Amino acid sequence: MNKTANLYARIEPDVKEQAENVLETLGISVSSAINMFYKQIILQQGIPFDVKIPKAPENSAKWSKERLDAELEKGYNDMLKGRTRPAAMVLSDVKKKYKELSKCKKA
């Protein structure tokens, strides 16, 4: 059996909960995920993903009529194929993302 070391980290409760929910869905323990992350740091010789400020979302108000029609068509096709989510769930996700972005701007 491999030796192990303990790791203690301070994490925002909502970030911890969201990440653990994703890991649970994937069937991966937190310890395994941290181990994978550390191994990738070693392999990549740095953080294994870009650390940068994300681009601002595109302003759909500036879309051409053709682009708007194409996006609406995609949405309609998704609806026909059953690829939908309840509006309350989408709104909840948007609020969470807004809250996360607000925290980033304050830091």
| Secondary structural class | mainly alpha
User: What Rg is obtained from the alpha carbons, in whole angstroms?
Assistant: 20 Å
The percent of residues in helical segments reads 55-70%
- What is the average of the pLDDT values? 88
Number of strands: 0
Helices and strands, in order, run as HHHH
Shape: elongated
SSE topology sketch:
Blueprint: H1 13-26, H2 30-44, H3 65-80, H4 87-106
3D structure, described in words:
The chain folds into 2 domains: 7-52, no CATH class; 57-107, no CATH class. The protein has 4 helices and no strands. It has helices at residues 13-26, 30-44, 65-80, 87-106.
Entry keywords:
61% helix, single chain, 107 residues
Summarize this entry quickly.
The protein has 107 residues and is mainly α. It has 2 domains: 7-52, no CATH class; 57-107, no CATH class.
